[in-house]
């Protein structure tokens, strides 16, 4: 009986560790509404590990083994899988933060002007962050004048957002914990709550429902960004991660893998859209339509807006029109 309990304990421990990865990493579990379960497993992980591990140890000691190498082999296999799940397949073990956040002006910048960037401006200070770089890091901590900022990008859903890493008025640090429904999630250090990258909303944990302060940002080529903000500084490559950066250029195009590719047709799950939220209402505009028409005039609620594609076919921009009669 104790032998059965020993192997059963190892099996449950293996299932638990696998589930921890399955629900929050880019696997088929992404399509399941399992966020609450994933957070429960993550929050109580040491309880499960101690219970199953202790039971397995007791059963091993209390059992009489004719071939002791069998349970030792089983334990070794489970230990290796646990190590892989927590130190190899964990999100923050695959994607590291830059050792140095270095920004340069246009004269010293080494980033090609055709590269897509996420740009931000506040109080006359402008900075741009190449998607090729932040796509690997997923988040880069920097400052805009006296304002701390957290520049984020999800390579799976192709969403760039910039937030102030402030929770309840206090500076917070975050780590990449995984993803849910193909969007990256971050975990704050203080409470362990999970935050969705695309919205800045805490979706699990003590702070569920809270929002990170967001800064308006734009996505366009660096060349177009310099036209708007010639004095902008640009985030430069960290030499430590150059090999990683070289593999990230595909995220400026349609991609190839099942996880990160985009659908070139319209209104599919992986089709590109430009989403606009204004006045408490939101609307998505089809990327193919924007490329074809170049300029779209529309209304979001009672607010007249304009969405335009620039000549490079990469950069887009949206404005609120002063008057409904104005159009492009």
Q: What can be said about this structure in brief?
A:
With 328 residues, the protein is of the alpha+beta class.
Chain-wise SSE layout:
Blueprint: H1 2-22, H2 35-43, H3 45-62, H4 69-87, H5 91-94, E1 103-104, E2 116-122, E3 125-130, H6 131-137, E4 139-144, E5 147-154, E6 159-163, E7 166-167, E8 170-171, E9 174-180, E10 183-188, E11 194-196, E12 202-204, E13 214-215, E14 217-221, H7 222-228, E15 233-235, H8 242-246, E16 273-278, E17 281-286, H9 287-293, E18 295-300, E19 303-309, E20 316-320
Parallel strand pairs: 3-15
Antiparallel strand pairs: 1-15, 2-3, 2-14, 4-5, 5-6, 6-13, 7-8, 9-10, 10-11, 11-12, 16-17, 18-19, 19-20
Helix pairs in contact: 1-3, 1-4
Describe the structure in your own words.
This protein folds into 3 domains: 2-89; 103-252, no CATH class; 273-320, no CATH class. The mean pLDDT is 90. The strands form 6 sheets. It has a 5-stranded mixed β-sheet. The radius of gyration is 24 Å and the shape is elongated. The N and C termini lie far apart (78 Å). α1 (2-22) runs antiparallel to α3 and α1 packs parallel to α4 (69-87). The protein has 328 residues and is an alpha+beta fold. Helices cover 30% and strands 30% of the residues. The protein has helices at 2-22, 35-43, 45-62, 69-87, 91-94, 131-137, 222-228, 242-246, 287-293, and strands at 103-104, 116-122, 125-130, 139-144, 147-154, 159-163, 166-167, 170-171, 174-180, 183-188, 194-196, 202-204, 214-215, 217-221, 233-235, 273-278, 281-286, 295-300, 303-309, 316-320.
């Amino acid at each position: 009986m104790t032998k059965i309990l020993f192997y059963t304990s190892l099996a449950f421990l293996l299932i638990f560790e696998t589930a921890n990865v399955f629900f929050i990493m880019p696997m088929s579990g992404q399509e399941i509404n399992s966020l609450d379960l994933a957070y429960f497993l993550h929050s109580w992980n040491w309880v499960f590990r101690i219970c199953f591990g202790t039971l397995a140890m007791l059963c091993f000691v209390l059992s009489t083994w004719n071939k002791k190498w069998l349970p030792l082999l089983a334990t070794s296999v489970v230990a290796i899988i646990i190590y892989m799940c927590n130190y190899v397949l964990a999100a923050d073990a695959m994607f590291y933060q830059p050792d140095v956040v270095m920004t340069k002006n246009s004269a010293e910048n080494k980033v090609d002007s055709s590269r897509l960037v996420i740009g931000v401006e506040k109080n006359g200070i402008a900075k741009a962050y190449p998607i090729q770089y932040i796509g690997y890091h997923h988040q880069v901590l920097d400052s805009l004048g006296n304002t701390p900022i957290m520049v984020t990008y999800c390579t799976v859903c192709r969403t760039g957002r910039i937030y102030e890493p402030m929770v309840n008025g206090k500076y917070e640090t975050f780590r990449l914990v995984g993803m849910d429904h193909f969007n990256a999630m971050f975990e704050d250090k203080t409470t362990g709550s999970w935050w969705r990258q695309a919205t800045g909303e805490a979706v699990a944990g003590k702070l569920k429902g809270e929002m990170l302060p967001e800064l308006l940002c734009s996505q366009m080529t660096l060349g177009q960004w310099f036209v708007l903000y010639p004095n902008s500084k640009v985030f430069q490559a960290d030499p430590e991660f150059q090999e990683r950066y070289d593999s990230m250029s595909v995220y400026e195009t349609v991609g190839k893998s099942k996880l990160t590719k985009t659908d070139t047709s319209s209104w599919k799950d992986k089709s590109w859209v430009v989403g606009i939220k204004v006045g408490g209402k939101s609307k998505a505009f089809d990327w193919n339509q924007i490329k074809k028409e170049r300029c779209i005039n529309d209304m979001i609620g009672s607010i007249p807006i304009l969405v335009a594609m620039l000549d490079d076919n990469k950069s887009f921009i949206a404005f609120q029109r002063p008057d409904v009669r104005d159009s492009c």
